[in-house]
């Protein structure tokens, strides 16, 4: 019998990123959460039809939900399912992580926002972060630092 090489397909791609969150907030701590999805949503995610802009995490009855994220349904979605693009989706986190996030949001004045959505094998994962808001002068300083790093790299790599 001949030796057969089996090559696994890499499904580790980014579906969507929330670039605005990195601009508007100081990121304190990151968490990885699973997403509870319906079938049509997974098909839309494979087509890359997700937006995390203006989305955030809410806590209700000791559970975490992704609120405001949009998953646009495909035109070929099933006829017996009514797709809702902006429904709240349950986040799959451990009890300890939920309690830690809830405590920080309720007591310390933090917010919880999604940073990225990506494939981890055949599962959809969401990177969420505990964040604090930036003031206008903080945003300007961050932009100035980013510009300086880019210019410095350009000068030293010539």
Number of domains: 1
Which outline best applies?
globular
Report the sheet with the most strands, covering strand number, pairing sense and barrel closure: 7 strands, antiparallel
The total of helices stands at 4
How would you describe the overall organization of this protein?
It is a single chain. With 158 residues, the protein is of the alpha+beta class. It has a single domain, classed as Small Protein B, Chain: A, CATH 2.40.280. 30% of the residues lie in helices and 34% in strands. The chain is built from 4 helices and 9 strands, in the order βαβαβββββαββα. The strands form 2 sheets. It has a 7-stranded antiparallel β-sheet. A two-stranded antiparallel ribbon has the order 3-6. β4 and β5 form a beta hairpin. The longest helix has 21 residues. GO terms for molecular function: RNA binding. Its main location: cytoplasm. Belongs to the SmpB family. It is found in: Cytoplasm.
